[in-house]
Amino acid sequence: MPVTRSTLPEPDAGALAHSARLAAHLRAEIQAAEGAAIPFSRFMELALYAPGLGYYSAGADKFGEGGDFVTAPELGPVFAACVAEALAPVLQQIGPEALFLELGGGTGAFAEVALKRLTELDALPDRYAILEPSADLRARQRDRLRQRLPPPLFDLVEWLDGPFPHDWQGVLFANEVIDALPTPRFGIVDGEVHEEHVVIDGEGFARISRPADGFLANAVRHLEQRLERRFADGYRSELLPQLPYWIQAVSGGMKRGAMLFVDYGYPRAEYYLPERDDGTLRAFYRQHVHADPLRWPGLQDITASVDFTALAEAGVGAGFDFTGYCSQASFLMGNGMAGVLERIERIADEGERLRRTEEVKKLTLPSAMGERFQVMGFEKEVEFGAAFLAGDLSFRL
């Protein structure tokens, strides 16, 4: 359950000073905006990605037990090894020209394990590219991979400012990326679609409602048609009408290959349940989940769950064939987990064996990440369906 802001640990003086600098930047943009308000999606974009100031652009630790949240690759090598097992056949089908594009490389933990496992599977790509907008995270990734990969593997890695600018073949992988896309927030007021905006409120910020522009209003009405019901007055949630354009942009000129997305979320009918009337927006700060995304700009992650039905539509709309949709637990079990468990049993060091066993539990148990995270795949001129033979949930979309 989300905690209240009063129970959150207080940032130190340096962190508060950093947040104050970003808050001043936000206030200046709000003051310059028409009506002294900016859409919540713009606030989220700046809070997360403002150069040198945003949460993902600055230098504080974010990942792991000492950061604000733990992602699957940070738990240990199991997740990345299984993903590599799933994607290896696609890389092998494409051959020597295959490229690997990872969106948002975190600490570099995924790339490290994936490249080592792809070497074992004889499925190394020609290049391993990380699209990472944060200069700080790029530096951390580069340092980690330089230290932990043999030179021939490290030489395969490159960092990109944007998607491949040319036609390409290979695989695209994104773990917990879509949940951090700046999302519009809509609400229904007297039967009309409104959009949440952010205004200055004393020393902080507040959210208000304003009539939505035609783009968002039409997207909400289209969503209601798909759901075959109207949203009640007072209903609020998130919607990413830009998702199809984002998928087209990041896949770029991929002519042959596969895309794989891992994130937390729901199929559309579950995402927009009548009782989920305040959406899924939340913030992560020092392992605490809370409901105040305007608190301490730059010091906390802001996320919203993924509408996997919308993701399926966006992938198909971008020219890919839908491959499959399943829970993270099913995906890992179907892609090398059995071999991982066998190797864990052979670990002589009892402490290490227990750590790896605990890692598997966190990745697969329904009470941990196993059911809360889901996996979706797409293919183009390759066969990727075998990766989704275990526990396919496409019928829920």
UniProtKB/TrEMBL annotation:
GO molecular function, one term: protein-arginine omega-N symmetric methyltransferase activity
Coiled-coil stretches: none
Keywords in alphabetical order: Methyltransferase, Transferase
Domain of life: Bacteria
GO annotation, biological process: methylation
Pfam hit, one: Methyltransf_28
InterPro entries: NDUFAF7, NDUFAF7_sf, SAM-dependent_MTases_sf
Matches recorded under PANTHER family: PROTEIN ARGININE METHYLTRANSFERASE NDUFAF7, MITOCHONDRIAL
Name of the protein in question: SAM-dependent methyltransferase
Organism lineage: Bacteria, Pseudomonadati, Pseudomonadota, Gammaproteobacteria, Lysobacterales
